[in-house]
Amino acid sequence: MMDFLKRFSRNKGALLGALILIVVVLLAVFAPLIYPDSPWKMVQRPFLTPFSTDGFPLGTDTLGRDVAAGLVHGARVSLIVGLVSTLVALLIGVPLGALAGFYGGLVDDGAMRFTEFFQTIPNFALAIVLVAILEPTLPTITLAIAIVSWPPVARLVRAEVLSLRNREFVDAARLAGLSNMRILFGHILPNAMSPIIVMASLMVATAILLESSLSFLGLGDPNIMSWGYMIGAARTVIRNAWWLSFIPGVAILLTVLALNLIGEGLNDALNPRLARKGR
Amino acid sequence: MADPVLTIRDLAISLPPGADREFAVQNITFDLYAGEILCVVGESGSGKSMTANALMGLLPEQVEVAKGSAHFESRDLMQLPAHERRKLRGDRIGMIFQEPMTALNPLMRIGDQIAEVFEAHNRHSPAERRQKALALINEVGLPDPEKIIRAYPFQLSGGQRQRAMIAMALALDPAILIADEPTTALDVTTQAQILNLIKTIQQRHGMSVMFITHDFGVVAEIADRVIVMRYGEIVEAGTAQAVLDAPQHDYTKALLAAIPSDTVPDPAPVTAQPVLQVRNLRKTFVTSGGFFKPKREVKAIDDVSFEVARGEVLGIVGESGSGKSTVGRAIVRLVEPDSGEIILDGQDMNTLTAAELRSARRRVQMIFQDPYASLNPRKTVLHALCEGPIVQGVPRDKAHARARELLEIVELDAGAADRYPHEFSGGQRQRIGIARALAMDPDLIIADEAVSALDVSIQAQVLDLLRGLQQRLDLSLIFITHDMRVAAQLCDRVAVMQLGKLVEIGPVHEVFLNPQQEYTRTLLAAVPGTDWQLGAA
């Protein structure tokens, strides 16, 4: 574990990413303490420019709502959607990919054709359709994002399991009389964890982007302030109040960048041999 | 043998910080004379390949020549700029590698790869290049040059690929040929042919050959002079005869002593009850063809029958593709046999259902070849040793106590239990593998190439351990190996396999000293260094 932290911290970018993410997480966690009022509440006259009025460091939006409050509360939505949808995607993709890789044959064919069925439909289009059919609430949006993002997980896990299942230690486990499930979940999957973790960190970033895009199109939960909604609401006034789109945009950029940097750092730290060659 | 072609003085190669030692090699001083074969011998990590790579300018990143010189044709190789060295490579110094499949470009035809050598050095017109390539293919003894020139590497066998590599290395008639373990990945009969080829070509072209190997048998077969390396330093140098017959350094003596000898023991015939009877075992692998491709069938096990007595060691020897490993895996049903009986103490393993098989697994255990792949890197040694017994219903504390006991039996200290596999060396891991097999208290143990991945001195230790355990615990053992010498040392009886068939089986001294089948005789004759050892015995 110490070894892992050491290797991770050797990557400067990954440290920066971790730092940014920690700030975002802290903001999200303490949002109700920093801005106890609802971010939807109109508190000043509209179109206050940033850094011009005391108490409203980022100004107000088209309806006089506090941009800073929106940003902080939006962080919660982004992170929750990102994490939960990734978890759900892993819960679908990992077992499916593992079974396909482990059993091969018909199971593999079935599982992979099913996966391809989802892969042939463009992610975003499918997400829009799903949200439009279901009611646009936070859980359904999360579910929709999970449903469009699990196929790559299944493929990755399948490939890992395929290469691990012929290792001699798996044969040894078979000879010990272990059941298939125990071999799969006790011996094979733990050895496939590193790439799954790396992929998961990048999936959180993608999920945040997807959620923002949905909200931007007005398909977000109408009761929840999110970064995507803020950009969407401000796009009509982008020529005279560009900062209203710019500020939540930067928030998305930084968070996604942070997650990508962390993902890369994790990759280096978990696959030290590849990392050394890369540099 | 007057003039040295290559003069190496005080060469040292530094490793990046954090490696297990500061220098990969140091104080390397030797000469390579015109028209000689110089063998560089050492175990893994001795720095023998590093030395060759330094000469070729092929050192990995962060590994640098720290000091020293290597004079070749009145120039110091270590001081030459990169483009000058590139001109030398392939032209004046050729190199062949251990694994010809990865050393050849899989997407290029053999002829084009040879022609490319000429092209890279701007020699000849395209038509001439083709002619030369044909001549080379002919020279290295590849059959049907017109066909080979159009073949892709995957269409050739291992030995043919190595011949193609040699043809490439010979293309520009180099003064020095560096061969880095060129026969290690090959079967023993193929190895004999390639060694022969290298020798003939060396004489015909008057080349100097620097031949890197770990195998003293190979040394005895081809070397004029020998350098023995350990931990990056030369410990002994001299003519082949002097080093082999009268080694000076303790390490060389130890290495030579560790070689399994050809002196065949004459064990008392085993008369006990058979623990395992295999009858008419068959397994055919079918690769499913596409729409237009015909199916391909490989008979991996073709009607094989034999018995193993209680307390007996049966060796199964054969070259790669002979089906010897498949037999071992079929007995434990890691491979499902097509038909046949595998009777273990009266119970036919081949008729068991999956659930019955799981509880019967205990009775036959395996020791695997690769000590790095056979242990789960994420589980402690204790876990590896206990998981099986616990699944079979042994109480946890009893299993733990037994595991610690077994570690002692295989001569590892008890503290090993709580460590992870990566903290152990190859030989130690193989001991753990043996302990794991013993933990299940099996009736029969199958060791599949259990010592093949180990250095010769480690190999000797593990073999000693196996032999001791076998006698002490009265184990029944099937020992699968490609190495005739190892088989001769450990086994009571030997079975020889070829192309899925059992060609000969009998007590070890009969098979080795009085082989009945032509194939067995060929195999035995191909073992490198036979003459030298017979002379010594």
UniProtKB/TrEMBL annotation, chain B:
Record membrane topology: Peripheral membrane protein
Main location: membrane
Alphabetical list of PROSITE patterns matching this protein: ABC_TRANSPORTER_1, ABC_TRANSPORTER_2
Keywords assigned: ATP-binding, Cell membrane, Membrane, Nucleotide-binding, Transport
Entry-linked InterPro entries: AAA+_ATPase, ABC_Ni/Peptide_Import, ABC_transporter-like_ATP-bd, ABC_transporter-like_CS, Oligopep_ABC_C, P-loop_NTPase
A GO-annotated cellular component: plasma membrane
GO molecular function: ATP binding; ATP hydrolysis activity
Domain ABC transporter: 6-256, 276-524
Entry keyword Phosphoprotein: no
SUPFAM superfamilies assigned to the protein according to its UniProt record, in alphabetical order: P-loop containing nucleoside triphosphate hydrolases (SSF52540)
GO biological process, one term: transmembrane transport
Pfam family of the protein (one): ABC_tran
Subcellular location: Cell inner membrane
UniProt xrefs under PANTHER family: DIPEPTIDE TRANSPORT ATP-BINDING PROTEIN DPPD, OLIGOPEPTIDE TRANSPORT ATP-BINDING PROTEIN APPD
Family assignment from sequence similarity: Belongs to the ABC transporter superfamily.
Protein name: ABC transporter ATP-binding protein
Species of origin: Aquicoccus porphyridii
